[in-house]
Amino acid sequence: MPPDPDSIADCVLESFDKLPQKRKPRIRDDGAREWVPLAGIVLAKDGRLSCVSLG
Question: Is the pTM of this model over 0.70?
């Protein structure tokens, strides 16, 4: 059975949260937030998910 899509998304977001702050979108001086697309490659083995790439 394939992994649950929400579990895959959570895996990617957990990896993103672990990045240092300087690697994330920032809040500009005028208070506007930067937005960027986030994509991840997740591998599944024995029911365990691992995010191996973020982009």
Answer: yes
Q: What is the pLDDT of residues 14-38, one digit of tens each?
A: 999 999 988 889 999 999 999 989 9
Question: By residue range, what is the domain housing residue 22?
Answer: 5-54
Identify the pLDDT of residue 11: 97
- pLDDT tens column, 6-20: 999 999 999 999 999
Torsion sign (Cα): 54, 37, 4, 19:
positive
Total number of domains constituting the chain: 1
The Cα-based distances of 6 to 3, 19, 23, 51 in angstroms read 9, 20, 24, 13
